[in-house]
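Intended use. Records like the one below are meant for learning the mapping from a protein sequence to its folded structure. Do not use them to infer anything beyond what is encoded.
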Amino acid sequence: MNNDLAKLHPYPFEKLAELKSGITPPAHLAHIALSVGEPKHQPPAFVLQTLTDQQAAFSQYPATKGLPELREAIARWAQQRFKLNAESLSADKHILPVNGTREALFAFVQAIVDRTKPDPLVISPNPFYQIYEGAALLAGAEPWFLNCTAENGYLPDLDAVAPEIWQRCQVIFICSPGNPTGAVADTGVFKKLIALADQYDFVIASDECYSELYFDEQLPPPGLLQACAELGRDDFSRCVVFHSLSKRSNLPGLRSGFVAGDASILKSFLLYRTYHGCAMSVPVQLASIAAWNDEQHVLENRDIYRKKFDAVLAILGDVLEVERPDAGFYLWPRTPISGEDFARQLFAAQNVTVLPGSFLSREHQGVNPGAQQVRMALVAPLEECIEAAHRIRAFVQSL
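Structure written out for the chain above:
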């Protein structure tokens, strides 16, 4: 077996199951899960209909590079959404469809990390999506973390990183809007990171899966390729972004997303993926075209989340240290007791499940940035989110 498998941490939800084991919550209260970031809104009917209508396409082996029509639909969407020049973002050279970004984020690091270089690092925010860490370990690299706390606006402090760390860095993950914090990086952050990548020769992997969940229609979160365009960097050198239909279109089970950016990197990544055997089925590609071509359902989706944040924050705002995030569908409140104790006792008292922040972070430089926080995913229907908020309020007041 690969010895690096022994380095992997249990996944957060394994830890959560262990944390809750042996507890019997009140039987008269229905369970409400705010722990898993799995969208529960209704998927677009026209996308599901496309899957039904295209069943005959299951008889075809799909190409790893995907249908030209899908890459063109993605290119049009990205050009409009991130103010990109149509001549610079090529559907043929700069875009690859992927089976959800979880798969792609992991595979990308395996293709990028050069094991012949000494002591390779993969840098990520802390707290973080655990795939970043697992991908680094199984690629033979060491994870290195940037603590994201309230003091730095929940964004990585790039100025605090020593030159010797940048020199060892081969890949840096940035997640904006952040999971779990909801913090949004402006183009200035991306531009600073691009300058560092040029100076120290590493690749930027920008996880932008929550980019379409925001509150102000006039202020959509910017992206890494948008920062490239503002710099006149039309080759997107060292820059790669990851996007998904899971959150944008409430289609987590479709497993459909894309990777876009530096053409030379994507050419090698395509070679890796051809051997990896991860081509997207043709019916899923056709359904994805329909989803990327429509914005109305995305507008409606954002409106539902706005209503949930308004309602929940009105209930919890005066009993917990909690603020509306910049974007995304998570709340990241500071808890009056440790996050693990809060989650365990809340489940025991109110049959509501939240995720301790320490399960999403690591102790780094003497600090675990999630130790005193929990993640609440507002993915349940509005009425359930309101009910959960009332139960959480009652629990907090009982402490």
